[in-house]
Design a protein that fits this description.
Elements (H helix, E strand, L loop, with lengths): L6 H19 L2 E5 L19 E6 L10 E8 L3 E9 L20 E7 L13 E5 L5 E6 L1 H6 L6 E3 L6 E6 L3 E9 L13 E10 L13 H5 L17 E5 L13 E6 L4 H9 L1 H36 L29 H16 L7 H7 L4 H12 L3 H19 L4 H7 L5 H12 L8 H6 L1
Parallel strand pairs: 1-13
Antiparallel strand pairs: 2-3, 3-4, 4-10, 5-6, 5-11, 6-7, 7-8, 9-10, 11-12, 11-13
Helix pairs in contact: 4-5, 5-11, 6-8
């Protein structure tokens, strides 16, 4: 008959199954991707949504001793980011000579992390307890499964090698603030994990200065040599000199079943991912190429819009006396628009008066202020009348008038293209040719009496 397992083993298995079920049922909250660039200076003023944001406050201490903490978390492709603001009117700082295991004996923040989300009842080898002091010092304790096996320790930890991280803290009049960035590689994962991570943040608020107590460090060597190990009793200072509190409302820390489950959501844009894949040097080249392409496309679209508007303007061009040196050229001018074209009659009349003035003074100063002065209106009134009367601007009106006059002169013949361009107010022949082609669809040299008659 097979032997039944000891009752202690059965209890352990049942407890593990229960904690696994509780972990599976625990709600998972969202940890957003950072939408900002971290300036690691200990001042979290650049932090903005989206970010995981949580606040907690002491409620049982006397009102003047009630600390408040606001913590925020986010992530990037490289790091887990944490920042906090601690309001503490009676900060008790740790002395210079102190071990990491003694950091919690002074005002501090403890960050518990389970990057793989696999802890059940006790911390294991991939879990860590990062202790942070207001003066910028930090240290790490790691979970140790061997200690958990060799001794009945509720929070099996040991001091570990320094964790790769960036940490900055600043003391303030209200307390202290900090920013923390932990590379995913330092947490034992190559990239941001796809599953949930588990996190706990806790504050140790001391209200009386004191000498540091003995270190509670436990080493595997001590256990193998038969050293006695037991959980320390609840400190008598709790509730009198010490007010510890985690963001889940616990006063005793280090138990994974109480930690929050956070799943990474969001992420960088495809452009950021592409730049990361290319590397810094090639990424900069790609950015320049993209910027040049965007600028080129924007210029091309702007030119197309300007050309369409200019052609519409020339199609509604009012009949008027001819250009300088030309009797008339009615064949090149479209008829006036009907009265119901949507323009205000008074504004339309003003616009036609502006056209007549421009056509009669193509060689004069036709800048918007000069044109407004010649028509005895303010610049703003000029802009409004032309917009309401012909859906145009002073600059577009002058350009259209010069192009229409140039077309008339070329159709009559007898002048070279350069002479026509100069006579209607263009000082740059290439600019004139480009604008003319955009407006009429042909080069200026292709317009003449014979061509006009055959057209």
């Amino acid at each position: 008959m097979p032997r039944r397992p000891p009752a202690s083993v059965l209890r352990t298995l049942c407890a593990a199954a229960a904690w696994s079920l509780l972990g599976a049922l625990a709600p998972v909250q969202a940890l957003p991707h950072a939408g900002f660039t971290l300036q690691l200076d200990g001042v979290p003023d650049e932090w903005r949504a989206p970010a995981f944001d949580r606040q907690w406050q002491e409620s049982q201490a006397p009102p003047v001793l009630r600390n408040r903490v606001r913590a925020r978390m986010a992530w990037t492709l490289d790091e887990l980011l944490i920042a906090a603001e601690v309001q503490d009117a009676d900060r008790v700082d740790a002395p210079a000579a102190i071990e990491v295991e003694q950091f919690h004996q002074y005002d501090s923040i403890q960050v518990y992390l389970d990057p793989l989300g696999d802890s059940i009842q006790r911390m294991n080898a991939d879990d860590l307890d990062l202790l942070l002091l207001p003066d910028g010092r930090s240290g790490v304790l790691r979970g140790d499964e061997l200690i958990a096996e060799l001794a009945d320790v509720r929070v099996p930890q040991r001091q570990a090698a320094p964790l790769s991280h960036r940490y900055a803290a600043r003391r303030t009049a209200q307390g202290w603030t900090f920013e923390l960035a932990i590379p995913w590689s330092g947490l034992g994962v190559r990239s941001p994990p796809s599953g949930a991570i588990r996190v706990d943040l806790a504050m140790n608020d001391w209200v009386r200065d004191h000498a540091p107590g003995a270190s509670s460090a436990i080493t595997v060597q001590t256990l193998r040599q038969g050293g006695a190990v037991s959980d320390p009793p609840v400190a008598s200072e709790v509730g009198t000199q010490l007010w510890p509190l985690s963001w889940t409302g616990q006063r005793d820390f280090g138990f994974p079943q109480r930690w929050l489950s956070l799943r990474l959501v969001g992420g960088p844009t495809w452009v950021e991912r592409a730049l990361r894949a290319l590397g810094p040097g090639r990424g900069a080249v790609l950015v320049l190429i993209l910027l040049a392409a965007v600028a080129g496309i924007g210029h091309w679209l702007g030119e197309r819009r300007a050309t369409r508007h200019l052609r519409r303007l020339l199609m509604q061009w009012p009949s008027s006396p001819s250009s300088p040196g030309v009797e008339a050229a009615p064949a090149t001018v479209a008829p006036e628009p009907a009265a119901d074209a949507g323009f205000d009659p008074r504004d339309r009349a003003f616009a036609e008066r502006a056209v007549a003035h421009v056509r009669a003074h193509l060689d004069a100063d036709l800048s918007p202020p000069a044109l407004a002065s010649a028509l005895h209106v303010s610049l703003r009134s000029l802009q409004r009348h032309l917009r309401e009367g012909m859906d145009t601007t002073p600059q577009e009106l002058v350009l259209a008038a010069r192009l229409a006059a140039a077309h008339e002169l070329l159709a009559v013949g007898g002048l070279r293209v350069s002479e026509v361009a100069f006579r209607v107010g263009f000082s740059d022949l290439s600019h004139f040719s480009r604008r003319f082609r955009a407006a009429y669809g042909v080069a200026p040299s292709r317009v003449g009496p014979a061509l006009a008659e055959s057209g």
